[in-house]
Amino acid sequence: MSSEQVKVYPNPAQDVLTIEIPTIKGNFTCIIYNTLGQKVYETQINQTSTNIFVGNWAKGAYFYEISTNNHKEYGKFFIE
């Protein structure tokens, strides 16, 4: 998995955030943190595309960590 393989959109999001991993093999864990470093969401991903409802989340910046057993990918998105 590389940053070219992970797509998180739309950015900024309003209601639904989509995480897309077209070359997925196995299970991934996705953890989302707020700017205080608090975990606000965690899910297992085992398909190429996952939608997360964020319509009731506070506006602002969030950070994601997508990991497998041997690799982690980090990124940032915004909710407006």
Textual characterization of the structure:
It contains no helices and seven strands. By secondary structure, it is mainly beta. The strands form two sheets. It has a four-stranded antiparallel sheet with strand order 4-3-6-7, with no helix packed on it. The radius of gyration is 12 Å and the shape is globular. It has strands spanning 7-9, 16-20, 28-33, 39-45, 49-53, 60-67, 72-79. It has a single domain (7-79), classed as Sandwich (Immunoglobulin-like). The model has no long low-confidence stretch (mean pLDDT 90).
Which features does this protein show?
single chain; about 80 residues; mainly beta; Immunoglobulin-like; four-stranded antiparallel beta sheet; 7 strands; about 50% strand
- Give the low-pLDDT segments: none
CATH C-level class is Mainly Beta
Structure annotation, total helices: 0
The overall number of domains is: 1
Query: Mind telling me which CATH architecture this is?
Result: Sandwich
Here the CATH topology equals Immunoglobulin-like
Question: In terms of topology, how is this protein built?
Answer:
Blueprint: E1 7-9, E2 16-20, E3 28-33, E4 39-45, E5 49-53, E6 60-67, E7 72-79
Antiparallel strand pairs: 1-2, 2-5, 3-4, 3-6, 6-7
Q: Gist?
A:
The protein is an all-beta fold.
